[in-house]
C-alpha cells in the first residue's frame, strides 16, 4: 500500500507542478490525517488518498471560474481525482469514496463517515489559523469544540492553537 500512496502523492505533485503552496498544503493535511488515524477509525488508503487529493479541483476552478471557492473545488475535484486514481488502478469503491469526500470536503453534514471526519479535521488543523482570528482563547476553544469532529482532531487543535 505504501507504494500506491507514494504514486498518488507523485501524481498530485505532478498535477500541481511548481505550485509549492498547494503541494505543501496537501502534504500538511496528509500528515495530520495520518496522525489522527493513529487514534481514530478510518481506512488508511481512502483517507490518505483523499488527503492528498482533497484540493485537486482548485486548478480547474481557477481556470474555469477565476475562483478557488470551496464549492467550486468540490465540483471540479472529483473528476480530476477519479482520473488520477483510475490511472493508478485503485478499486472502484475506493475511488468512489475518495471522490465523495472531495466533493464534500467544505460541506459538513453531506457525508457522515469516519474517513470524512478524519479529512475534515486534518484540513481544519491546517486552515484554522488562516481562517479565523485566534487571539481570544475562549472563542478559539469554542470554535475548536464546534468545528472538529474527532476527539483526536480536537486534541491536536487544542495543542496547536490554545
Please tell me about this protein's structure.
By secondary structure, the chain is mainly alpha-helical. It has a single domain, classed as Orthogonal Bundle (Hypothetical protein af1432), CATH 1.10.3210.10. The chain is built from nine helices and no strands. Helix 2 crosses helix 7, helix 5 packs antiparallel against helix 6 and helix 7 runs parallel beside helix 9. The longest helix is centred in the first third of the chain and has 18 residues. The termini are far apart.
Q: Which structural class fits the helix and strand makeup? A: mainly alpha
Q: Main sheet, how many strands, which sense, barrel?
A: none
Q: Ranges with pLDDT <50 over ≥5 residues?
A: none
- Into which percentage range does the β-strand content fall? under 5%
Give the name of the CATH superfamily: Hypothetical protein af1432
Helix count, per DSSP? Answer: 9
- Ends distance: 36 Å
Report mean pLDDT, rounded to a whole number: 97
Task: Just give the CATH class.
Answer: Mainly Alpha
| Gross CATH architecture | Orthogonal Bundle
Q: Looking at the structure, what is the overall shape?
A: globular
Relative helix content: over 70%
Radius of gyration: 15 Å
Query: How many domains?
Result: 1
Spell out the helices and strands N to C.
HHHHHHHHH
Amino acid at each position: 500500500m505504501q507504494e500506491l500512496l507514494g504514486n498518488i502523492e507523485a501524481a498530485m505533485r505532478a498535477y500541481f507542478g511548481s505550485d509549492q503552496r498547494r503541494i505543501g498544503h496537501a502534504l500538511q493535511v496528509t500528515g495530520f490525517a495520518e496522525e489522527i488515524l493513529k487514534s481514530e477509525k478510518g481506512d488508511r488508503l481512502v483517507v490518505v488518498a483523499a488527503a492528498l487529493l482533497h484540493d485537486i479541483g482548485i486548478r480547474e476552478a481557477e481556470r474555469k471560474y477565476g475562483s478557488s471557492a470551496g464549492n467550486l473545488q468540490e465540483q471540479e475535484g472529483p473528476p480530476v481525482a477519479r482520473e488520477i486514481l483510475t490511472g493508478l488502478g485503485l478499486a472502484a469503491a475506493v475511488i468512489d469514496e475518495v471522490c465523495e469526500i472531495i466533493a464534500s470536503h467544505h460541506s459538513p453534514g453531506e457525508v457522515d463517515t469516519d474517513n470524512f471526519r478524519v479529512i475534515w479535521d486534518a484540513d481544519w488543523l491546517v486552515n484554522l489559523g488562516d481562517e479565523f482570528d485566534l487571539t481570544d482563547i475562549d472563542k478559539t476553544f469554542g470554535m475548536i469544540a464546534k468545528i472538529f469532529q474527532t476527539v483526536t482532531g480536537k486534541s491536536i487543535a487544542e495543542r496547536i492553537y490554545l
